């Protein structure tokens, strides 16, 4: 029939070795001490008990070529099945002899992949079908073959013997049924019978001969061809499923596994015999029982004759020896022999003889798997046993760490020494600074796993960093000088262990940024300059605290709104680089700072002069390390850079850290103002009133010590008078400096005046600056609103001159008009043109602002003509006047400038007037003109009359 091999192999993986319960007792001398690993074994056994409960239900068939079940480090999994004989290569409903022989017996042939076509052998007594030994049958094998019947007992229930009422054939079919229901296959499951039935009758007085036991004559099952294994230097375990009708303990089936390598002269027994009737639960024994009423309905059609209505309990065990084979080669011969020498009993059957790769699994892990540069991690090597939990002695490994990853000299282990002796400790060689870890160890019996912990640190001495991604995988296991030979005499990176996957350690770059912020002044006042210094630094790098260059660091300083017109500069030290040398407004820069470097920003602004807010001014600067930086994958690697998460112990990457400084308002604020306001143009003799306001914001008296610098005022004006000292002492001006001193407890003002000079002026600019203390400001200091005022002296002279320009003419009147988009605008009253006292024909304006104006003559001197058209003029910021086109073409208007003051000169020819003394007068001129006009009129009249007479004589008339 077609075998269901695929599904049956799965069952073996799920149930063959996963067992639960207490460790079964072992005989002295045949059992090794289980002193190491009892705690871990107990935990695993508890987990396996859960699996055992599930195994009591009928299971599905299993895969033919299973792989090791996946489990986490420290969690045992069943070994991989490398050989399985399930005796299924028999047509359904038939029976097959184990060995060929007389009576038509054809030997059973294996169908297991990789072993297909091979036969087995056994001792004669255990392959005698007439005694129900060596018969491969199922519950459905209702008809016994002839070679399984002796004497007169020809009816099928009485096969395998002559005794009436024995019905051995029915009972071995029941064992096959129970085995199939418990371990997979149901009624179609085939088993190997080892029932050892008597071959005498009840009438001849004979006795039951004993079936032999022992490794020579008691062989039930033996390979004739070596089993191929996965490779050399592996641990192999064996297992078998059994069904038995149990009786006295001395008569119950016991099976002993033995092995040898091809060519070996002797066999080696493996551990203690496995017991088909054992009721102990352990990693090596999974016990179940099934009780059947002996009826045809309950047993799938088996007839019971004299046993009808009774019941039988079948013991079902999944067994494995308590030892494993440590093999240097890749081939193995195996046999299983009877270990019970009873004459009666030994009523059993077995199935699913298997070889398992019980090589422990090795896992690698770094804990933690992500560290900061300079930190250590623990490389944990976990050796995990397979689920049968047998001892695994004498394995070794050599792990060559990735470049720049080295041991620190600290290590520990829970593994036993290579000998496996209780209380011993595995040999771990991992010297400080070494890039190689060598371990020689063992797993104790019942020990689920053991660990080797080696502290490691990534570091490159030349580069002073360990930043990188370090992958420690199977290829890192290579033999070195300290590697011991494996069981086959050859050195390997791994001996007796299943290679692990990869473990990765990521070492992140550390930047250690700090930011400080300072204000140059302890307090602020309206109109005063404020200066902030922001310093962003990266800590120096040491072997104990390595620091990486911080790239793409964002530095910001959002200057408070009350600090006006901010500017900033950036300077760097220690190899740092600024993104920009400076700028205006808020600071927003991206910088690079190596270890020990820094960038320094100086932010300068000014509090507005009219800022009356009494609140503190707080300025906050922020430095933000990048969340990621591109760096080589390992120190010095030429490979393309990869992104690394950035670590900063005090300045969170991507979020940043900040520094702030809060400046309170000064208790004394000084404000300078003027009337007219600063910037207003002044004329000669104009009066400027200066007011110094001392704003007292505290509760205690405040000392006043200020200097009002008049050096830029008194070159163009003279000091007027002190109108109000405000309770303070005002001295000067001495050396053109006015000193204000004293103490105030409330707001007060100092008021004084100056008068613009008429002549002998300096630069025609009144620049007045007040400063704290007695030291006057420098000539290049800026004019800060609130502490400084400026008034240009800018006015205009207009004069009316005779035609030859030699005499000023009295009687003229002029006005200034505004400019209306290039046309004459409204008359201006400020500034207005007024006559200069004591001067004929000379006019002067008040202070005139720069701009475009029109000059219009509204009244001419007697006997003279008005200026033909208004004249456009442009007043510059320096007071210079130019005529606008087309006024520049007017011939009788000219502009001149002396000492910064411009004069418009208007010349005008006289009209016709009588001579003042002895002249001929104008009578002759008038008479001559009249006669000429009369003659011209007579001539015109005469010409028109001649034209009329000529027309009357024409033919049309």
TrEMBL record:
All residue ranges annotated as the DUF11 domain in the record: 512-624
Residue ranges annotated for the DUF7927 domain, each copy included: 667-793
Cell division found in the keyword field: no
Keyword line: Membrane, Transmembrane, Transmembrane helix
Bilayer-spanning residue ranges: 35-57, 924-943
The keyword Cell membrane appears for this protein: no
DUF7933 domain sequence ranges: 360-479
GO biological process: carbohydrate metabolic process
Domain called SpaA-like prealbumin fold: residue spans: 796-884
InterPro entries per record: DUF7927, DUF7933, Ig-like_fold, OmcB-like_DUF11, SpaA_PFL_dom_1
Database matches in Pfam families: DUF11, DUF7927, DUF7933, SpaA
Listed name of the protein: Prealbumin-like fold domain-containing protein
